Amino acid sequence: MTYRVCFVCTGNICRSPMAESVFRARVSEADLDGRIEADSAGTGDWHEGEGADQRTVSVLETNGYDIDHTARQFQASWFSRLDLVIALDSGHLRALRRIAPTEEDARKVRLLRSYDSSAGDDLDVPDPYYGGLDGFEECLEMVEAASEGLLAAVREQLEGQAA
């Protein structure tokens, strides 16, 4: 059985495609390709059909990550095929839980930084869109720090499904 994770931010051009790329790399490094699938979406349709922000692409490529991305909007109907929906900030968390068809679906939504034990109380990944390249680099650091914990949690779920 394949475990499916979807990362969600506002427009699906900065934070969520970055998180998707980093998590896919972690999945591949753990030799779990085929057992875990990752994708991303936005809460809105502002950038639907566009590629990732060039600053996202630049920061990812500079740090050795691959990205091939087309923005799209998250649909409530997707909950039925997803195991986990990862929100990049608390606004996304609230929006996703609001559109979740069931309580069970709402429980699938988690904040990415909740998987980073060193994150403290602020679990939002700030939107780098209106700033410079340094904001995208900071975003990548936060995403990388949380991805290890997320992968460990998903691996635990997979092992539970196999039992």
Question: CATH topology, what is it called?
Answer: Rossmann fold
Under the CATH scheme, the architecture is 3-Layer(aba) Sandwich
CATH class: Alpha Beta
Radius of gyration: 15 Å
- Mean of residue pLDDT? 97
CATH homology-level superfamily: Response regulator
Proportion of residues in helical segments: 40-55%
Order of helices and strands: EHEHEHHEH
Can you count the helices? 5
Can you put this structure into words, describing what you see?
The protein is α/β, with parallel strands linked by helices and 163 residues long. It has a single domain, classed as Response regulator (Rossmann fold), CATH 3.40.50. The chain has five helices and four strands. A four-stranded parallel sheet has the order 2-1-3-4. Strand 1, helix 1 and strand 2 form a beta-alpha-beta unit. The protein is globular and about 45 Å long. The two termini are 12 Å apart. The model has no long low-confidence stretch (mean pLDDT 97). Belongs to the low molecular weight phosphotyrosine protein phosphatase family. It is an enzyme of class 3 (hydrolase). It catalyses: O-phospho-L-tyrosyl-[protein] + H2O = L-tyrosyl-[protein] + phosphate.
Please describe the structure with a list of short key phrases separated by commas or semicolons.
163 residues; alpha/beta; Rossmann fold; four-stranded parallel beta sheet; 5 helices; 4 strands; 42% helix; globular
In short:
With 163 residues, the chain is an alpha/beta fold. It is built from 5 helices and 4 strands. The protein is 42% helix and 13% strand.
